[in-house]
Design a protein that fits this description.
The protein is an alpha+beta fold. The protein is 47% helix and 22% strand. It is built from twelve helices and 17 strands. It has helices at 2-18, 21-46, 61-73, 91-103, 126-146, 191-204, 230-264, 343-346, 419-433, 453-526, 534-552, 554-567; strands at 51-52, 78-80, 86-88, 151-159, 173-181, 208-216, 269-279, 283-291, 293-296, 308-310, 313-327, 352-365, 367-375, 378-388, 391-394, 412-415, 442-447. The strands form seven sheets. It has a three-stranded antiparallel β-sheet. A three-stranded mixed β-sheet has the order 4-5-6. It starts with a helix and ends with a helix.
Amino acid sequence: MNEWLKKFREQLKKAWSGWRPVQKGIFLAVIAVTVLGLVLLMRFSAQPSTVPVLTRPVRDEVALDRIAARLDQENIDYRITADNVVMVADTAVAQRARAILAREDLIPRETDPWELFDIDRWTQTDFERNVNLRRSITRQLEQHITALEDVDAASVTLVLPERELFSEDQNPVTASVILTAKPGSDIRDSRAKIEGIEKLIRFAVEGLSAENITITDLRGVVLNDFDRMQDFDRLELTRRELQLIRSQEQAYRNSILQALTRMYGEDRVRVINVNVDMDLGKRTQETQEHFPIITRPNNPATPFDDSEFVLSIPRSVETVREDYEGTGFNPQGPPGQEGQTPPAYRDLEGLVGRWSSSEDRSNFEINTRSMVEEGSPEVKRITASVAIDGVWSRVYDDRGNVVMNPDGSINREYTPISQDNLAVARDLVEHAVGYRQDRGDSVTVQHVQFDRSSLFEEEDAAYRRQRQIQLLVLYVLIGVAVLLVSFIAFRLISRELERRRRLREEELARQHQAMREAALRSAEEEGTDVEMSVEDRARMELQETAINMAREHPEDVAQLVRTWLQEE
């Protein structure tokens, strides 16, 4: 064994000496991580396993403090995790802690109500189980009710009496609920919502009837007293009926406006009144209809109706006939004995009698249709009144200008609507509301001149503002035109003066040049040497160059002169 260890150590040293520094570092890191993992595994595995007292975390800090204080009084070792879950050593301690919390009513409301039955004790009685059942059902009902949108809080009290042998001795199951409505909720005045809560309570508790349920608000007002709400229901029904009538009247009003405003304009049509008298009572009507039996249907390919029908068809026929003809027969007694025929019938012996009876019975089948209809709201009478205004138009003079009144307003003339147009409008209104003469409907369309003084004042003010703006713009344009003409005239005059000044200077320069040249020529003729200045020589050279260029390139010089003239 020692030799094997020595050999293994030598191989390890040999391999270690052959590794690079990176490989040595990785090997040491793997060994360190392995040792650390083993240490942590041994540490956590050595800790005792814990069991939660309640399956859900306790969110309420006050309830959590009460639970911790009660467990401290019972000397129960517990631990509260970061997510507010109470943990104990084992299952037995957890059951004991739950029993203590249930007895002291310290189990939070947000926990599962049926966790009360997780408590398993040998000393638990049937009474305690029944109490836990009632408390669980109560909390479950409170959670269901508070889950509703209109309920902020709910307090439920249930009474579950013990079972009796005879039903007449059995006390009923009762429930009382106190609701706290959310701000802005209409649950106090909504019968449908209260009935929903009542059904939820009745179906959640076995043996509970509707008359044994009392639902109140915080002020003690009974909310499920539906007999007291009959007046409210009647008012609500009346409100809905009136709303239905108003919606129907609005629909007719929209139909009238849609039919007339396209022709006469929106500002010329006013719907004064639309009144709909409706029968909102509920009724049932049963009718029976008899119609012929079609033996051959109509052929759609023919241009006429070639169907055949009969009013009825025979179902059964019964005929009974009785005929009798012969002498009457009166039976006698046994031979040798006198018959027992009464004397009145003995006189009829030997008479010839005749009897005849005939009876015919025929049963026929006909088509029958039975209909049962429930009457919906029916319109009994419609009255509508519409007013239509005439046309206002402006007065223009011969030149097409608007004629103004002395007070500064626009002169207008009024054209009333014709009777033909009124008749057409009446027909349109009658068709829009479904006019029926047999129902007693009434439709009135009249010509009425509307008061448009305020509208005309606004139009006159706008027209005056427009005229003022037009005059202002005209004056501004005239002023700009005057300034522009003055500026152009000033530029033309200034250019003309500049041109004349330049011409005078050029004329003087030419005269000076001519006098100088004359003096030079006279000096040359006389043979006198005249000294010229540098400027005179440069000017003469420039003049000779210009003359030579004009002779050699006359087109370029002409173009240069034209450019100078355009610039000036």
